[in-house]
Amino acid sequence: MSTLSVHDHGVVHHEEGHEHHHDTFLTKYVFSQDHKMIAKQFLITGITMAVIAMLLSILFRIQLAYPDKAFPLLETLLGRFAPEGRLDPEFYLSLVTIHGTIMVFFVLTAGLSGTFSNLLIPLQVGARDMASPFINMLSYWFFLTACVIMLSSFFIQKGPAGPGWTIYPPLSALPTAMKGSGMGMTLWLISMVCFVASSLMGGINYVSTVLNMRTKGMDLWKMPLTIWAFFLTAILGVLSFPVLVAGVVLLIFDRSFGTSFYLSDIVVNGQVMPFEGGSPILFQHLFWFLGHPEVYIVIMPAMGISSEIMSVNSRKPIFGYHAMVYSLIGITVLSFIVWGHHMFITGMNPFLGGVFMITTLIIAVPSAVKTFNWLATLWRGNIRFTPAMLFAIGMVSFFISGGLTGIFLGNAALDINLHDTYFVVAHFHLVMGSAAIFGMLAGVYHWFPKMFGKMMDEKLGYLHFWLTFIGAYLVFFPMHFMGLDGVPRRYYAFTEFASMQRWLSVNMFITWAAIMSACAQVAFLYNFIHSIFWGKKAIQNPWQANTLEWTTPVEHIHGNWPGEIPTVYRWPYDYSKPGAEEDFILQTTPFSQTMSSNLPHDFEDNPAGMDELNKWTSTQKANEEVK
Amino acid sequence: MAFKQLINGGALLNTSESKPLVKNSKKLFALLAMFMLLGTNVLMAQTETASATTADKPGVDWLSVGYYVLLFFLLAISIAVVGKILKVYDLSQQIQGKKGIHWNNVMGIICIIFLIAGMIGAYWEFTVQGSMSLPEAASKHGIKIDSMFLTTTIITMIVFVITQILLFTFLFRYRHSAKRRAYFLPHNNTIEKIWTIVPAVVLTVLVIFGFFTWQEVENSSDLKGGPASINIDITGHQFAWEIRYPGTDGILGKKNFRLIVGSNKLGIDYKDKHSFDDLQADTLVLPVNKTVRLNIFSQDVIHSVYLPHFRVQQNAVPGLPTYFKFIPTITTAEMRRKVDDPKFEYLLYCNKICGGSHYNMQKVVRVVTEGEYRQWIAKQKPYLTYPLMKELKLAQAGQNKNISQNRLALNN
Taking the model in full, what pTM does it have? Predict the structure, then answer.
């Protein structure tokens, strides 16, 4: 199979060699079918959306810190959404909703998977391009359309969607229930359908590329963990996103065509509605059937990226490669049967709640294995603190801190009191928000030389890391305690409750920490943009890494490798192997060239190799005896 | 990039000191220019605000906006200056044949500082903000939840402290050194088995505890022969709660959302004779140590009945009646003494996003002694008021007709 595909690509490359010269601006930068360019498009769109969503969060953080204060500047900026300098309560909810939607879907799904799956899958498995470059291009353009539609909802009369990023009906289904359930909600739904189409096209491409287009010698167990993570993420996406579309389409029916899938027994503004027989819980089941795998779609690429970066920069093989892969597979499978833990208190059958609690807590085992393996990878390493490494470490720290609180929330009994409080906000912002964005930033710093052929500034990277890392902890750590005091999320102000007013000072502190972290992102944006144009030129393998992408030339070419695609002989983590000359051995180096560092372990399923090794060691011994 | 030329240049040592100075003074110039630019902006803005205030509207305070922007620029510029100085220092050291700043060491040390500061910070948060969390559970099942919470907290905090310490000390201990090579350790089956099985066992314990606690909390069937629980209806709508107590018969009458009108806002079905004596209340008053069953409804969107002090939460879902059964154990008066706050009240509030005024949808909950409860309930007014009674007599006839017509339609 793989020999065949290598042959095929040789042919494809030949044709592309001619085409190469005819690239116009339009085909090279805009309607590009080259996976590297599409990756950059995803990245830059993702970063733009991240900045927008971050600014939205600063807006509502200001409201939470200063609920009684008017900011005339807000009225200048937002007009009717902030009359007399105060955010409108319904617009506050819109801000929360759009912040969540953009961050979860547009940044951490498309921005993360879209960028790094597109960039790394062909480069790391040794393929000329994606299985279907055209669909890949469509995937980006659907994504961009989704972004534009989502943002356009800020420019309509009633403002963007407001029922939370989980858009639970009936709130999202009744346009009269709130401003954000009107036209803004319609745009949200249309945008999401485009988004799912985009992510499906991407996902199908990733899966088929990984399965069919690996270079010679690249069997599944020689793939870097990044590829494993992207591959399993894509499978998750392909299987779960369609369910969201099903849910969304039924919601559109309920909103526009008078069906009652999710609606029953409703009276709005004293008016009895005709809906009967539907169930709002049905939507929650459909939503979380995607929604829970979605959080793993967000975190698994970050895990894969961090594993790779930590191995490269510790100059050590990732500890327990097989266990890392099996735990990813375990998380993938389990993530399909835990969605009910979002619904413990919705009125779902308590027995079902118990079952979901068991499956949820089981998922902590593979997560724990991954954490311990990361720690073991660092142990006795030779750790180079590149910015990418720091962000990967930050990802691990956040994953531990946020993951542990998941054990509280996954427990149905404890969830009764913690559900929908700030404890939840703290939990998921650490474990999937901060951890995943740190994985993404680690990836940007690490593969920037591959993407743009330039190096980013390390010192600015350090500054960016520490400010963001400390800032994120300062923002989210205190939120746990607010949650333990029963402070609910999605409250416009805590002024109406005497018991919550004492958290005002904490809210102010959190807001200022958030503003600090937001300012720190300027260091990143400056570094990113400046380095694209004026950065130091990168060398071919700046991090002395083993994986295939570093064997391609710095200048991008169609088809990635100028000659034949290199053959792979070994796993990607031969760092600091005893007996080797350098502390890294490229995947393309055959064992015959590294006789002094070969280990019996390398030939467990390769008897011919084992014979060679035995022969070599016996001659070595004989030589020594002669001496 | 200028520094690359610096290295390549002939008279390295001589220029290395003068050039950065030139560079820095350029920076200073830029800074000054920025200052002046913003200064003029601020001045111009000032006149603008002056005119804005005359227009009888709170104008934007451009001065302070400019101030913050200026502050940020100054900060950015000073960071840039510090960065350049560091770079120059680094390079001049290298030129003199010494090694520049060991950034790996610096980062390693910052990691240790972060670990220590972080641990102190976390400890501070636990003691100061941890003590701000909810007082002890005021319900029977809440005590079980709290002990479950404590167990989970202890276990997870041990893991938290150990793993974070390991993470950051490893970073410091194994920071890069050119003299050393990392230890090649691709895997170790024994240790991997240990750290798969240990978390699995710990989680099994937590799962079993959690499962039984959950079963107990959610178990809603009355004990056979035991006293029946007090049924209370609580109905959420945008943005308030309606509370309905059963009258002397102890049974709540039927409801139907189609009957909702201005005078019958709960849609109580008065064909059911149990509904005649149903009482309405402004406060959720509960007798202490009695089983209470909250029947939870919603009329429009999903709300959530959240009584954090009792560790009670259940969503109110339109079309899907839900309930929560619990036994309050501490009266409001007692709790006031315990938390040392004479104004303390138990609260019920909405905890599921439900629209613009979601943030203010509360009811006071008062737990009282049995005697006080009897006195209180005797004072409550029934839903069936005299004018409503009159109105219903008329309406009911019409409704019967309607319903029989519906039946017919269904049969077809």
Answer: 0.89
